[in-house]
Amino acid sequence: MFDIYNFFNKLSELNVKIRLDVGQPDIPVDERIISALIESIKRGETTYVSTGGINELREKIAEIHGVQPQEVIVAPGSKFLVASQLFFAKKIAVISPYWPTYIQMAKKFGKKIQIIETTFKDKWIPDFNLIEEDVDTVIINYPNNPTGIVIPREKMKELVDIASELKIKIVSDEVYRDLTFNKKYVSILDFNYEKGVFVYSFSKTFSMTGFRIGYAIAEREEVKRIQKFIEIMVTCVPKFVQKAAIKALEIKDEIKRKLVEIYGSRVELAKRKLDKKHFEFVEPDGTFYIFPRLKNNISGTTFAHELLKRDVGIFPGEAFGNYNLHIRISLVSPMLENGIKVMNELAAELSEKTVLGVIRY
Ligand code: PMP
Q1: Which of 63-67, 160-164, 222-226, 355-359 has the lowest mean pLDDT?
Q2: Which of 95, 201, 234 most suits a substitution to test ligand 1, by most atoms within 8 Å of the C-beta?
Q3: Which residues 6+ apart lie within 8 Å of 356 measured at CB?
């Protein structure tokens, strides 16, 4: 498996100038969120607090989603919530291309894994009928990292029907839910599925990646199970971080509008500027990623390595499953246009070499 963190460290060590690899939004954290955190620390809110999240935040989240506070749990990042779910599973179905952490985590926990592959040709839409009978947990992620797509409502309904027949838990990683460019997005919460676990993060919408905070919504017993996991592993999320999160939720609509505008215009830029002779991609419904296919048989891994020599960072498709002709571009740099120019030049050069048979992949 391609080691994405290794590659990320290499890009950082080499001080690569145009970073289109990692999923770190380039919009700074809003001043009001930072002030809320600082004020909280100044008030001395630096102790251990309730292990499931402070009431004020749980109530706010419950109000937003129309659920009860007992169905909400606050955790140190959505990655931690995903871990709590995969830890309890026996066999996990993962849709590829996937966020590599799902596989790394499942392997670390010694779980069985079923990978359900999707293709560029099918516009990355999965066939949930392929889920094997001994799977007890399926993890989905829409809007999707790395393709940016969402699945239609009928597809989600099909999944819920299959899962309810096979008594499968659906973990729905919806960390990109606020960044959508159309009205296609549906949430697992829309289906009232009792074995559904909704996962959200403050990292992507609010750029609060280093704050380490996310939340899940699930039925009460599941929430208690996750709470136990948090108690054993980290005790709680710091109160000052939770206070910042409350402020973030208060100004969410404003932030969301800005986010959609900035990343929406970068998707348009990529559509216009990426040379169609060399790249093709399914138009994303959301997120700040695109997952282009390199035409002319160029390997994504070779492309990523060559590109880094030209001061541009991207991740190869291989990191997200069996997709060696793809690359993931993270649209998180204001230097995107320069990066695309370098990509077009490199793709043209490599295409010529593949035609001449000089490079073998
Ligand atoms: N899920 C997906 C699909 C992601 O892409 C990421 C971040 N790259 C996360 C979860 C993790 O987010 P957090 O910072 O909340 O742990």
Answers
A1: 355-359
A2: 201
A3: none
